[in-house]
Every structure is written in C-alpha cells, then in structure tokens.
Amino acid sequence: MKIYTKSGDKGETSLVYGMRVPKYDPRVEAYGTCDEANSAIGLALSHMPEGNEWQEFFSVFHIVQTKLFHIGAELATPAGKEVGWKIEEADVEYLEKMIDKWDAELPALTNFVLPGGCPAGAGLHFARTVVRRAERKAISVGEQLEVNPVVIRYLNRLSDFLFVAARYVNQKMGKPEPTLHQNEKKQ
C-alpha cells in the first residue's frame, strides 16, 4: 500500500464517510489542530526519562493521546453521521481526577508560571497552547455545525491537565519552573 493517494492534490480532503471538503474547511482546521496538539504531546513525552517511576504517567498520556485522536474523528465526522469513538463525560472526569492527583503534589501557585523548565515540561506547556487553539477552532465549528459539547469541555480541561502535567514533570525532574515576579518593573 502506498502512503500517498494523490486525492488531495487539488486542495480537497475527505472527512469520515468520504465527504470531500476544501483543506481550509473549519472542520479540517479543528481536527488538524488536534493532530498538531497530539504531535506536540508526543514530542514532549519523547524527552521523558524511561523507568518504572514514570509508568503511570506514560499510561495516562496514552489514554489522553488516544482521546485526542478520537476528538479529531468526531470533528471529521459530517453532521448526521455517527462517530465510532464518542467523547463522553467520563473522559472529562478522568482528566479532572488526574489534575487533582498531580496538583496535590505541587506547591501552591504564588506567581504566574512562564512556559519552560525541563524539555519535557516546556514541551507540555507548548502542547497546552496548541490545545487551546484546537478548542477555539472546535468552538468556531460548533457555531456553524453540531459539535458534541463534551468535546469542547474535554479540550478545555485538557489544557488545564497539560498545565498541571508540565508543572508536575518540572518538579519531579528537579527543574524550577520560571515564574513572573510581581515586583519586576513594568515595561
């Protein structure tokens, strides 16, 4: 099987069920941004050390990346068609559970956290910003077409999850997270 199909050479792509749309279609933008976020997560995870102490962390992220892939499938499914992997409220609750678990191990925030830290932590911060963009694009699609409202909640919670995960990784790796100090001179 060849990886290239040549079916997109004229600026169109297929949604699930074969419906053809321009590559700039808002649904394509939304699910493409989810794919970009998923890739950013994968890149961040590639900077993580291996070992039993991180086994749960990687297991959680395997679930998260799979759900993000499912969100892309939902956004690529035309109205009136059924999606195979529907995001459910339990998926949002899972993120909340992990946020609470990891956040309980972190020091309280006293300043705004700047993206950075170790490469994995900085990468998770970057992934968070891409998820925020995916959320905005999914909301935009939802203004024109029906979008599962749980998809929007999941993306919103996913950005919170990635923020906490970045802080968690930085702390576990012993890398101080950069913060915005309130007493710095205003420019």
Description of the structure:
This protein has a single domain, classed as Up-down Bundle (Hypothetical Protein Ta1238, Chain: A), CATH 1.20.1200. With 187 residues, the chain is mainly alpha-helical. The protein starts with 11 loop residues before the first strand and ends in a 7-residue tail after the last strand. 57% of the residues lie in helices and 5% in strands. The strands form two sheets. It has a two-stranded antiparallel ribbon.
> What is the total tally of β strands?
4
End-to-end span in angstroms? Answer: 58 Å
H/E topology pattern:
EEHHHEHHE
Might you state the CATH topology name?
Hypothetical Protein Ta1238, Chain: A
User: Any idea of the CATH class?
Assistant: Mainly Alpha
Q: Which blocks of ≥5 consecutive residues have pLDDT under 50?
A: none
The CATH architecture classification is Up-down Bundle
Number of domains: 1
Oligomerization? single chain
Structural class: mainly alpha
Helicity range:
55-70%
- Relative strand content: 5-15%
**CATH homologous superfamily label:** Cobalamin adenosyltransferase-like
What's the overall average pLDDT, rounded?
A: 88
| Morphology call | elongated
Enumerate how many helices there are, as a single number.
5
Strand order of the largest sheet: 1-2
Gyration radius, in Å: 18 Å
Sheet with most strands? 2 strands, antiparallel
InterPro entries: CblAdoTrfase-like (IPR016030), CblAdoTrfase-like_sf (IPR036451), PduO-typ (IPR029499)
Keywords: ATP-binding, Cobalamin biosynthesis, Cytoplasm, Nucleotide-binding, Transferase
Pathway: Cofactor biosynthesis; adenosylcobalamin biosynthesis; adenosylcobalamin from cob(II)yrinate a,c-diamide: step 2/7
Enzyme class: transferase
